[in-house]
Amino acid sequence: MKIVTKIIDVKKELKEVRSHGKTIGFVPTMGYLHEGHLSLVRESLQNTDVTVVSIFINPAQFGPKEDFKEYPRDLERDSELLEREGVDYLFVPDKNEIYPEGYETYIEVLNLQDKLCGCSRPGHFRGVNTVVLKLFNIIYPDISFFGQKDAQQAVILKRMVQDLDLDVRIEVLPIIREKDGLALSSRNAYLSQEERKAALVLSKSLKEAQSMIEKGERDSVEIVNRMREMINSEPLVKIEYIEIVDMVKLNPIARMEKEALAALAAYIGKVRLIDNTILRVEG
Ligand code: AMP
Asked: Please, what is the average pLDDT of the chain?
């Protein structure tokens, strides 16, 4: 695996790759890798000729009071994991490489960026869109792999790709969870043992939502209320939002038909976690 830090170098390397007619798969990450990230990497390795992973903790997507400084980092371990998987290139730019002195250009995807997590994290998706578009322009991937874990991010990036006629296919892969249901996240590293146990109520509430649907419930308000009640029974957990929305515009849905996204964000102590599931009505 080649580790590259400069845009000019990675562009040169990948131009060579493309000149041989090879396809490029790309997995953007913020590092501190876990099986969720690796599931994307493996899918890329299986479906494209050359796999590029980036690790960049993007300052533009963190609010002033968020955890940019504390975000977990372990480049040595990450590169070992990626090397073992057989990744071809690891791109690790520094902040000034991506946002040099005088940087002024940002990408906004209107409306979608203000929903769900956008309410409490203004500017977050503007930062995500900007860095992802920049990375697409640097790497020029045929396919880029993202996790359903960040469901809103996936919807927004698909919109951006369509709106800007980008020549990249976005693949969204399922959420990888611990055996007990907790969705893998780099931020889980912040949780104490007690908090981790409390955090299980998030995935449990999403399961409960699906099981209510299986028992015939179609009223979203009823489902959200039940989820809220379950989560509120855990004193360590504070709900930021729970919503049931459509999967394209992310607008709230009153009655369940076919499928919808149940998405939530909550604080477990100081740690903000997100989780979601696609609710499906059988038949
Ligand atoms: P991050 O490093 O948090 O920016 O995540 C990089 C990519 O990994 C994003 O596309 C995430 O959606 C994806 N990802 C993070 N956690 C998981 C998970 N538990 N399962 C599947 N994909 C994930």
From this structure: 98
